[in-house]
Amino acid sequence: MSKRHSEPQKSLFREYGEALIIALVLAFFIRTFLFQAFTIPSGSMLETVQIGDYLLVNKFSYGVKNPFTGNYLIERDGPQIGDIIVFEYPGDPSVDYIKRVEGLPGDVIEVRDKELYRNGELIREDYVQHIHPTTIGRLDNIGPVTVPEGEYFVMGDNRDNSEDSRAWGTVKRKAIHGKAWRIYWSWDSEAGRPRLSRLGHKVE
């Protein structure tokens, strides 16, 4: 009896174990090379993304990186102006930030009285906001600065409530996780309910 009954039981445990290993390997592959979940903790990108938005980051947008060294195994075109990227905060690589690319390598960036100039041209975009200011005066006038090779100048859409390249400099390409893609969940903590209208919304 014990022999006949123990064999199916062992087989069942083995199947569960193999399924678990496959699931873990698949999850590691997806998170490392394809998509990563990211939560919006602050209002620096209002109104493009909201506090409480949960979004997926496309890690393949700019290439495939070695998960251990951060070097590119397969390199594609880098971020473009207007891309919303998630990256390691230069002051603490364990913290991830989300901002919009406003300057490419070689671009000359200047901020005058809150207005952005790229290569001497005034840049005005509909997505720029000035909500709940917390950086009044400190970041209103910056530069001109030339973006170094292999680095990017990033800014929050909510310009008066964003610590970004105006405060701590440019972002190295190696530190970029990927391009923000879609919102898969959104929670309004003040109202205590989900924002169903934002589900599936493309981040741009």
Automatic annotation (TrEMBL):
List, alphabetically, the InterPro entries matched.
LexA/Signal_pep-like_sf, Pept_S26A_signal_pept_1, Pept_S26A_signal_pept_1_CS, Peptidase_S26
Which GO terms fall under molecular function for this chain's record? serine-type endopeptidase activity; signal peptidase activity
Report the Pfam families cross-referenced here.
Answer: Peptidase_S26
GO terms in the biological process aspect are: signal peptide processing
The answer on whether this UniProt entry bears the keyword Hydrolase reads yes
Q: Which residues form the Peptidase S26 domain?
A: 14-185
Cite the PROSITE patterns for this sequence.
SPASE_I_3 (PS00761)
Location in the cell: Membrane
Q: Which Gene3D superfamilies match?
A: Umud Fragment, subunit A
Provide the active-site residues from the annotation: S44, K99
A GO cellular component annotated for this chain's UniProt record is: membrane
Catalytic activity line of the entry: Cleavage of hydrophobic, N-terminal signal or leader sequences from secreted and periplasmic proteins
Q: Keywords of this protein's UniProt record, alphabetized? A: Hydrolase, Membrane, Protease, Transmembrane, Transmembrane helix
Ranges annotated as spanning the membrane = 20-38
Which family does the entry's similarity section mention?
A: Belongs to the peptidase S26 family.
Q: What is this protein called?
A: Signal peptidase I
Q: Which organism is it from?
A: Candidatus Mailhella merdigallinarum
